[in-house]
Specification:
Strand content: 25-35%
Structural class: alpha+beta
Strand order of the largest sheet: 1-7-6-3-4
Distance between the termini: 19 Å
Helix content: 10-25%
Number of strands: 7
Order of helices and strands: EEHHEEEEE
Number of helices: 2
């Protein structure tokens, strides 16, 4: 499993934008498509809200990639 640490510079980041900023997708729209398709998990639970707010301490997973938000 690939692990990425993402440094948060504000209170939160939307999950679709996090996927883009972490380099897993080319655009926020592509991130929204993956979320809507059920491919993204937040703290181990399937996340279907395309603009869910991700805060420090949470973990986002897409396939075999895990993003730890700090």
């Amino acid at each position: 499993m690939q692990k990425i640490e993402f440094e948060l510079t504000s209170e939160f980041v939307e999950v679709n934008q996090l996927l883009k900023l972490a380099g897993l997708v080319d655009s926020g729209g592509a991130g929204k498509h993956l979320v809507a398709g059920g491919a993204v998990r937040v703290d181990g639970k399937k996340e279907l809200r395309k603009t869910a707010k991700i805060r420090s301490g949470q973990t986002v997973s897409l396939g075999d990639v895990q993003i730890s938000v700090q």
